[in-house]
Amino acid sequence: MKLRTFILISLSSFALFAWVVKSSWALDAPMSEEAVAGKEVWQRYNCVSCHTLFGNGGYVGGDLTQITARRSPEQLSDFFSNPPVIPPHQKETHVALTEEETQAMTAYFDYLNTIPTLGWPPQPRVLEGGDAP
Ligand code: HEC
């Protein structure tokens, strides 16, 4: 390859790259600032050591990917301001969060709940009729 061709291809590749980067700036931020703050709360308290998101994490607590579909903001706020004693030791109480942290956490959970999971997690099959035991 001639040097001139090489330089031409390099420059046009760089121009294309710069254009893609610049146009991506115009895209909406996928997460609100509050949701980002919630993600930081999630990381600071190491929630992932006991809970899974999209199936990844610890299995002591449940999966929280779609928790806001099951729990209202009031229920979450009650839970974090007055956390229950948790298994397996029955001595430790669950991590408590401040009102501000709970709001951020809920915003993050709300964001997670908008991510399509194509039916995951699978729901238990309910058998109707038939001779299944
Ligand atoms: C030491 C392990 C552990 C850590 C760390 C932990 N959790 Fe939990 N979490 C549990 C267990 C166990 C339960 C189930 C409690 C129960 O059902 O009595 C639970 C329950 C919950 C629930 C209620 C779930 C439901 O179905 O109602 C939420 C919400 C929750 N955790 C969020 C969090 C968040 C957010 C963090 C980090 C700030 C966190 N947890 C950190 C163990 C943990």
Would you kindly provide a written description of the structure presented here, covering whatever features stand out?
This protein has 133 residues and is mostly helical. The protein has a domain at 33-113: Cytochrome c-like domain (Cytochrome Bc1 Complex, Chain D, domain 2, Orthogonal Bundle), CATH 1.10.760. Helix content is 47%, strand content 3%. The protein contains 5 helices and 2 strands. The protein has helices at residues 3-25, 33-44, 67-70, 73-81, 99-113, and strands at 52-53, 56-57. A two-stranded antiparallel sheet has the order 1-2. A hairpin with a 2-residue loop joins strand 1 and strand 2 (56-57). Helix 2 (33-44) packs across helix 5 and helix 4 packs across helix 5. The relative contact order is 0.14. The structure holds heme C. Heme C is lined by residues 45-47, 49-51, 60-62, 64, 67, 71, 76, 79, 84, 86-87, 94-95, 97, 105. Residues 45-47, 49-51, 60-62, 64, 67, 71, 76, 79, 84, 86-87, 94-95, 97, 105 line the site of heme C.
